[in-house]
Amino acid sequence: MAVIPGSSTGGGPTHFRNTAAMINAAAPNFEAAHYQGIMAIYATPLSARNVQLGPDGPKVVDFVRCSYLGLDNHPDIVAGAIKAVQDSGTLHWSCARTRLNFGILGELEDNLSDLFRARVLTFTTVLAANMSALPLLASGHLTGGHKPLVVFDRLAHATLAHHKAAVAAETGVETIRHNDLTALEALCRSHKTVAYVCDGAYSMGGGAPIAELRMLQQKYGLFLYIDDAHGISILGENGAGFARSVFNEIGERTIVAASLGKGFGASGGILMLGSAAQELLFRRFAIAHAFSASMNTAAIGAAKASARIHRTKELVDRQGALRRNLELLDRLLPSHVMTKELPIRTIRLGDELLSVAAARELLQLGFYTSAIFFPTVPRGEAGLRICLTASHTERQITELAAAISRMKEEFRQTTV
Fold first, then answer.
1. 331, 5 Cβ separation under 8 angstroms
2. pLDDT digits over 345-397, tens only?
3. Alpha helices, DSSP H, located in 274-312
4. 195-246 pLDDT, tens per residue?
């Protein structure tokens, strides 16, 4: 998600939000996308990666959903959700987590803590997890009582960037260019305590330089807050994820946020913490923990079932299938984002209306892809996003690549 760079030394939250300007700039793009019928589509899931548009509409191949391992329709996960609701006799408790919790939720958090070798707290969404964590990070209670300068990557996801104003009300905030390690190191040198907020796997493709960030952490004590919603499950032992690729132990200077609803195939969000003191702080003061309810029983049951799959060879097989599909797509349709381990590809077209037209044409051909434009990406970088999964077939990938290649050539000829 593109954001407007800004800086503050505290007390200036208005520097970080201009919702009116964003709406005014982006409204024509959304208007065109809705008019062309490529946004807010209602569909019925079918087998594999197919969906049916409307009650009697066409069947199309879905390249939009982020279930990268194809677990979202796994029969064991569906059965786990049903069983948890039936066994509990309820779907939801309307109660803050500081008061009353489902017993099976405690079992799930223990299970995930063991699975990912961290202290895991669950939330209804990754948005709720980030909303809970960033004010605590700004408070200094995670950095030895020293309020850190909080540095955001320019392309940090909207569910991170949205909280800049709240963070700036407590401490200094900076925004640096995407993956700009030189700028980050300069800030580490000039400030006593620095926290860096970024994605692990970015939602528009590519990833953070995890190994280099780890080196800065070791050199300067940099605190890392990494949202790995798109990186969980697809890599690592037990699906620990992209961000954990160089962190065998989380430690007290790293927090990883992740999704249970993408590669993991269930629903909800988590925080991976490194110490008992951090866990206690979050259980008492994290806003979505203290003032909102927990995951419902269906989500808990689904997550427990997925955790079981994550401990089996099936996870390894699905990770391998995803890698092979990515290799095929990259061979047929090279893109400017070629991080081979990560499952998101973007085809840059530049013009917003051209990206909408391209998505519309692909939908008519039987492929649903995402048209991306400002504010999801910076101006001038509009295009298509493809989310590949382990469940896509070779034929589906080959036909999509051929369709996009033909379309790009047609667009090129009309603009010459």
1. no
2. 999 988 888 999 999 999 999 999 999 888 888 888 889 999 999 999 999 99
3. 276-285, 287-290, 297-309
4. 999 999 999 889 999 999 999 999 999 999 999 999 999 999 999 999 998 8
CATH 3.40.640.10 residue window(s) in the chain: 75-309
Q: How far is CA 176 from CA 5, 13, 76, 284, in A?
A: 7, 17, 43, 32
Nearest to 243 by CA among 220, 217, 211: 211
Select from 322, 326, 321 the least CA-distant residue to 339. 326
DSSP 8-state assignment for residue 233: T
Residues forming CATH 3.90.1150.10 domain(s) in the chain: 26-68+313-415
Q: Would you say residue 13 has pLDDT above 60?
A: no
Match domain 26-68+313-415 to its CATH number in 3.30.413.10, 3.40.50.12370, 3.30.1330.60, 3.90.1150.10. 3.90.1150.10
| CA–CA separation, 67 and 64 (whole Å) | 9
Yes or no: say if 147 and 170 are a contact pair by the CB < 8 Å rule: yes
Q: Which residues pair with 165 in a beta bridge?
A: none
- The tokens describing 310, both together, are 């994550």
What's the alpha-carbon Rg for the chain, to the nearest Å? 21
For 301-351, the pLDDT digits (tens) are 999 999 999 999 999 999 999 999 999 999 999 877 657 889 999 999 888
Report the SS3 class of residue 173. Answer: strand
How far is 416 from 404, CA to CA, in rounded Å? Answer: 18
- Fold of domain 75-309: Aspartate Aminotransferase; domain 2 (3.40.640)
Angle between helices 181-190 and 210-220 (to 10 degrees): 10
